[in-house]
Amino acid sequence: MSAVARSLFGRRARLRWIHLILGGALAMPYVLVGSVVIGPVIGSADVFGSLPLQLASFAVGLPLAAVTSLFPLTRPLESAAVRWLCGVDTDRLALGPARTRGEKGRTAAWFTLHLGFGGIIAGMSLALPPFAATLIVLPVLSGLLGSRLGLPEVFDHAWVLALAPVAGAVGLVALAGCAAGCGALLARWAPLLLGPTPRERLAAAEARAADLAVRNRLARELHDCVGHALSAVTLQASAARRVLDSDPEFVREALAAIEDTTRRTVGELDSVLGVLREGDAPGTAPAPTLAADLDGLLRRTRAGGQRVSATVDADPEALPPLLSREAYRIVQEGLSNALKHAGERAAVDVRIAVADGELEITVENPVTGPAPSRAGGGHGLRGIADRARLLGGTATAGPAVTAAGETAAPRPGSTSTAGPAAPRTWRLHARLPMKGPV
């Protein structure tokens, strides 16, 4: 019983009732225009004094409403009203103006239905409640005023007078039922008539995909540049603190590396965040590449005490700019992982070579304790895999040599291994086509 009451008088039903009343209000100008047409044709000066003439005026006005629905703002306004008052999800509605013939036809059909149902429910809402209220209080008024009410003869029967309040209550419930039914029908038809077409859905999906791609790219750039900088600066500051009194020259080199790292990272961060600041010009700092900053990246990493050996059997200057930039980020993330997991002064081996038309990047470092693992981590390795995939290449990360000395092939996307026989060497290996799909 409560479910029925909610469907008739609940908040959703009341909002849909308001939506219908708004449709009735919008229909009034068209009804007035229809009455101007019907009056001279019928030869009646009092069109609104006759219910049939009112309905005829209403029927003439609805086609006019369909024509005016071609106004560009009709569909956005109707979609907004349906979203707020009828409870239809935003993604099921088209928020832009109707452009094609089919879209305009569906908008015209919706507008006609909204005004048609709204005009009927609005008229019932104006006429039925006063009449029903009169029936409900009629026995009381009859007892107080008697014959002075001038009631029809049918009310002379006691049983008719006794049923009058019931009839009034039933009339109000019937009005609520009609409003709820019409509101439910309009809510059901709204996605069909106001919803996006396949072309619009495709355009929206492409826009969301483009936005997601930009967000993912920005997330990768922020993770790589800021994450590497923080790892490097932390290691450099820690090493400088330990030898502050015994090796001033090393401290000076570490502080210079910290200054260089933070200055470069601020420039990169400004360049990345410039994309997010709508209306602002993007940062002017160029994205780092192997050709521009590989030596600097290795030097800053070594300044923290890390022993990094690099073998470069490729000409960074000859690499395409996009490939050089993505390869730089892969090397940077490999060094960041080594800084986090290899331990202090551990040996890190970086190899960059060209083979079979592909740029091969390998970063190997020992692992002290369990293999790399952290709750919610692995974003850097996923970022490397994304970069390689976008260039048409592959990337693997995982154990290279087990504790027993046996070779274990890296697994794509692998981020952790645990147990007493944890691998002691971690290998990152990426293969990037020299001429990728990008």
From TrEMBL:
One Pfam family per UniProt: HisKA_3
Histidine kinase/HSP90-like ATPase domain boundaries: 326-397
Assigned EC number: 2.7.13.3
Region feature (Disordered): 398-426
Domain Signal transduction histidine kinase subgroup 3 dimerisation and phosphoacceptor span(s) in chain numbering: 215-280
GO terms for MF: kinase activity
Enzyme class: transferase
Signal peptide as annotated in the record: none
Matching InterPro entries: HATPase_C_sf, HATPase_dom, Sensor_HK_TwoCompSys, Sig_transdc_His_kin_sub3_dim/P
Keyword Disulfide bond: no
Keywords: ATP-binding, Kinase, Membrane, Nucleotide-binding, Phosphoprotein, Transferase, Transmembrane, Transmembrane helix, Two-component regulatory system
Chain segments annotated as transmembrane: 20-43, 55-73, 109-138, 158-187
Reactions catalysed: ATP + protein L-histidine = ADP + protein N-phospho-L-histidine
Keyword Mitochondrion: no
Coiled coil: none
CDD domains the record matches: HATPase_UhpB-NarQ-NarX-like
Top-level taxon in the UniProt lineage: Bacteria
Residue spans of biased composition, Low complexity class: 398-409
Protein name, as recorded: histidine kinase
Organism listed in the record: Streptomyces massasporeus
